[in-house]
Design a protein that fits this description.
Blueprint: H1 7-19, H2 22-29, H3 33-47, E1 52-54, E2 59-61, H4 63-87, E3 93-100, H5 108-118, E4 122-129, H6 131-139, E5 145-151, E6 158-169, E7 181-185, H7 191-202, E8 207-212, H8 216-224, E9 230-233, E10 242-243, E11 255-262, H9 270-285
Parallel strand pairs: 3-4, 3-5, 7-8
Antiparallel strand pairs: 1-2, 5-11, 6-9, 6-10, 6-11
Helix pairs in contact: 1-2, 1-3, 1-4, 2-3, 5-9
Length: 297
Amino acid sequence: MRSVYDPVHLRTFLAVAQTLSFTQAARRLGVRQSTVSQHVRRLEDAAGRRLFTRDTHSVRLTEDGEAMVGFARSILDVQERAAAYFTGNRPRGRLRFGASEDFVLSRLPEILRTFRREHPEVDLELTVALSGTLHRQLDAGRLDLVLAKRASGGGPGELVWRDTLSWIGAPRLSPDPDRPVPLIVFPPPGITRARALEVLHAHGRAWRVVCTSTSLSALIAAARAELGVMAHTRGLVPPGLEPVPARAGLPELGDVDFVLLHGHRPGASPGTREAADALAASILAGGDRLHRPEPPL
């Protein structure tokens, strides 16, 4: 007997897979947590496999759940393209989109390429900057949609996913626990910079800045040169770098949220709002791809 996968259940599944939280998925979808659990259970029944493992503290994808992520995204992409084709409703207009430096080496370009192919009437303008800078530009009305970091657990924005911050460095690097921590950081208002300094101060660890740059590529180069360590999202660790060994005694950095924020510029055209909604939907549907590096050309 062939299984039929309900698109509503697939959207709910992707929301849980990206946030690793039934509560956050319910908040994103505007439904009750019990509804999220019901949708996931029905999808698991249709697949005949467990898609998540759960306990009181965490939610994790199973191997079959990882496979379902790709299938769910493909099914929903086809459905949305068909709906757009037959309804003829395509957003158009100028869309100013801001993305955090964190996504330079992710598969965000792949998502944007797909969006441009499917929405050729949208004039997309991309700004790449520090998350703190993007928040300010959005508040000033200079951006229409932003994908950026925020402190975990609160604040505005629609949660795309939550991840853990880690100390990373070159494979052979092991900072001396008796000396100041050599830091590779973004300048203010970098969110990871602020978190790193806050945590080190709270634990009484001395530190010194060995490299500062607004360019993620420059920070990665400094880390590969073994100049020091940097705080970075565990799901986006660049090639050639790895988590710092526990023997270095560096304190835990906690979690960070990646969120979508919509602008509220007075006088924004309906087309701009529709284009922002369409791109936000594409990012939410393909949020799992943001955890993976851009494939080589």
